[in-house]
Amino acid sequence: MRNSYKLKNRIDLAVCLVLLAFGSAVRAQTGDAEQIEKFFDAALTNGKAYGWLNHLSNQIGGRLSGSIQAEQAVEYTKAQMDSLALDRVWLQPVMVPKWVRGTPEFAFYETDPGITTNVPITALGGSVATPPKGIKAGIVEVQGIKGLEALGKSKIAGNIVFFNKPMDAAQINTFNAYSDAVSQRYSGAEEAAKFGAVGVIVRSLTHKLSDFPHTGVMAYGDGPVADRIPAAAISTNAAELLSTTLKLRPDIQFYFKQNCKQLPDVPSHNVIGEIKGSQYPDEIILVGAHLDSWDLGDGAHDDGAGCVQAMEVLRLMKEIGYAPKRTIRAVLFMNEENGLRGGTEYAKQARAKGEKHIFALESDAGGFTPRGFSFDAGTAHFNQVLAWKPLFEPYFIHSFVQGGSGADIGPLKEEGMVLAGLRPDSQRYFDHHHSDNDTFEHVNKRELELGAAAMAALVYLYDAHGVVSQP
Amino acid sequence: MRNSYKLKNRIDLAVCLVLLAFGSAVRAQTGDAEQIEKFFDAALTNGKAYGWLNHLSNQIGGRLSGSIQAEQAVEYTKAQMDSLALDRVWLQPVMVPKWVRGTPEFAFYETDPGITTNVPITALGGSVATPPKGIKAGIVEVQGIKGLEALGKSKIAGNIVFFNKPMDAAQINTFNAYSDAVSQRYSGAEEAAKFGAVGVIVRSLTHKLSDFPHTGVMAYGDGPVADRIPAAAISTNAAELLSTTLKLRPDIQFYFKQNCKQLPDVPSHNVIGEIKGSQYPDEIILVGAHLDSWDLGDGAHDDGAGCVQAMEVLRLMKEIGYAPKRTIRAVLFMNEENGLRGGTEYAKQARAKGEKHIFALESDAGGFTPRGFSFDAGTAHFNQVLAWKPLFEPYFIHSFVQGGSGADIGPLKEEGMVLAGLRPDSQRYFDHHHSDNDTFEHVNKRELELGAAAMAALVYLYDAHGVVSQP
């Protein structure tokens, strides 16, 4: 009895202390909660992100690096930022690769004499062309790059390799399924060439069974240029059909033709706008996304959504009259998709100028309902961030994790700074990603706005409180 | 120093106790976590819900109570449940109201002689018809029912009332915004008639600016039948346009015509399937949704999604070989939208038979990414439920709240039982709700499947552990 009494007293004391600590945290956050509510209210009732995205998607369209659309997107977003009465808006020059698709790709196979099946196909970004008359060859199916070894050179040489590893539907976060399957797209041509393949076609990286082929970047590694073989993606419906066809007709010849090519680099720009900090103008908080997209669809989710959200963060601060202590900078990076030149150049220039970035946040996972953030930071700092989590829960934002951030801000990473990525709901992203199906009508206005507000809220917290714990 | 040392010891002790308690909870839940993972894996890799919904939406379509489509939906879902090798599948007879829309509604107004604007319009469910030649009258705009009083009888009598209160965009949960605005649709005609109005038109209940009019149930209360005035919804785009038009041309005449009517009640059915419990067959766990829908669109989100999810809960148990201790029953209720006869009859029969329901879960908020559950239960029981929350977090399901459940299961509520509702992401729901825009192509397969798996997981937990704490 006595022991348990003492024990109870001790627990009560500890509970009281915890409650006291919690109480003071709640008090400290009251002002934060009110400020954050203002961002959400303004974004949802008077947001500008959706209108901007409409223009970027429907009046400009797909914005592949080096294209006239990319140039138009630079001009449009700069003009819109100019209209926000920021302290400074400018263009940062950067040379970008210029890969062009050329005339539409074409593919088919013949199952019986004269009976052909057309295949929805798209060249992978960075691929070489086929010979002008196309390639016609036997076709062998493998499940990802590991499948090459199992099949061996004897069965592969002289044929087209068909990489047909599907994204794993059981993964809850679809980005994990993408990561598990993307190597066949990125390195499939390089690896298959080592076995004597004459071309590769890859199952589109999406869970959805559809007729859209999904492109994306590929690379040839360091091998001789002469060994490069053409690479393309086919739709998931076509991949399913081809796979079952090969079981019935293993000897069919597959034909495809593409005349894409890599032109010399051309000048382009990152688009940058900032609000100068009132107390610590030399401490920069960056919010960014990438302005380029693939040439299929209009790049609404990847990554028009992120661009207009980054711009909206600055506009929301102006609208609710929040004057940041630190400098808040929106950066629309050029050429994330096939080169990362914009992100690389930005980081290089920042180092050359001795600029101090304390925090950078990227939105590059679609304009879907925001579910949380991923923080590239150590545990001490992550614990600081976790104390902010309750401020996001009224907005149904619950997932704070340690992990990656965004490709464009990656090169900025330095001791003492924090990188983070907005993490929207991932279920629908790959239905659209890198395909003709990534279009404005698939973006929900409220979901886009909630993402912008969530970003503004996190940027606000870093501005108001700084990076207290060691990142 | 000494004090702080003692203090530290006490806290350490308390922390240890907390960790010990947590550790044992974690061990107790390990089997649960594995079981739940099986449900998610099976739903995502071999789910049947999406295929069923395709048939219900595209081969049957909108399923208004009393329609042939409702009858076809009863037959189809019973046949599908029959194929699942359940212990019992049956139809429960219920008389339902039969309201019919008649020929398409028509509305316009004239701003200058001969210059007319057509208005997308739909009769509200339960409304009377206009006279055969339609109604033409002046039109007065009010912001919800409160606006009637402000305007007064002198300005309203002889006119059509235009209820134009928008859903509040600043509400994060869109169902809250719906609740705040729905009275103008449900009671607008009854209230406006008291001021001498000859008809009402209501702004569609959606945030989205679109051309779709959204229907929904309305009622006239207890007043004389002769006082009933026709009620219809117009699209949000039309409402915006009409509102600005009235500022320029306050004297325009608005015309609308509809010939909907209420026919005598007709027989219909709830569709029920169950797996008998191995240990406590008399304890019933119900998982349900409503099979009827409005006649606009195909009712894919409202509530075809919920129906196929409820069926999928039973199928998943069969597929992974889980034999429940308690009886698990899927109920597809008829006539939620305009009468709730199915839910009422089911509860009446359950009481007459002395059936003991311990838990009922409804899905009637769309087939979107599941975000959590709402529990109609007291605090002691809710705390039991909160201990299960970590089991759902790997699936990005974080929101467990106390609150409402579902309309159909409401009549079942009794001392000692728990009701709950699946709570999917709410942002897109009202873009589709009760309109021609509620169609199958707006349902994402994975989102639908995640919802079904989440329901199966919660049903499993109640089956495995029962209702331990007082609900």
Summarize the structure.
Chain A contains 15 helices and 16 strands. The first copy, chain A, has 471 residues and is an alpha/beta fold.
The appropriate CATH architecture of the largest domain in chain A is 3-Layer(aba) Sandwich
CATH topology of the largest domain in chain A: Aminopeptidase
- Quaternary structure: homodimer
Q: How much is the radius of gyration of chain A in Å?
A: 25 Å
Name the biggest interface. A-B, 34 and 34 residues
Overall spatial form of chain A? elongated
Strand order of the largest sheet of chain A: 1-10-12-11-13-16-14-15
The largest sheet of chain A is: 8 strands, mixed
What is the number of helices of chain A? 15
Mean pLDDT reading of chain A:
94
Low-confidence stretches of chain A: 1-28
- What would you give as the CATH superfamily of the largest domain in chain A? Zn peptidases
Q: What does this entry look like structurally?
A:
- The structure is a homodimer.
- Chain A has about 475 residues and is α/β, with parallel strands linked by helices.
- Chain A has two domains: about 270 residues, Zn peptidases (Aminopeptidase, 3-Layer(aba) Sandwich); about 160 residues, Glucose Oxidase, domain 1.
- Helix content of chain A is about 40%, strand content about 25%.
- The first copy, chain A, has 15 helices and 16 strands.
- In chain A, the strands form two sheets. In chain A, strands 1-10-12-11-13-16-14-15 form an eight-stranded mixed β-sheet, sandwiched between helices. In chain A, strands 3-2-9-5-6-7-8-4 form an eight-stranded mixed β-sheet, with helices on both faces.
- In chain A, helix 1 crosses helix 15, helix 2 runs antiparallel to helix 10 and helix 10 crosses helix 15.
- The longest helix of chain A has about 45 residues.
- The N terminus of chain A is likely disordered.
- Chains A and B meet through helix 1 and helix 15 of A and helix 1 and helix 15 of B.
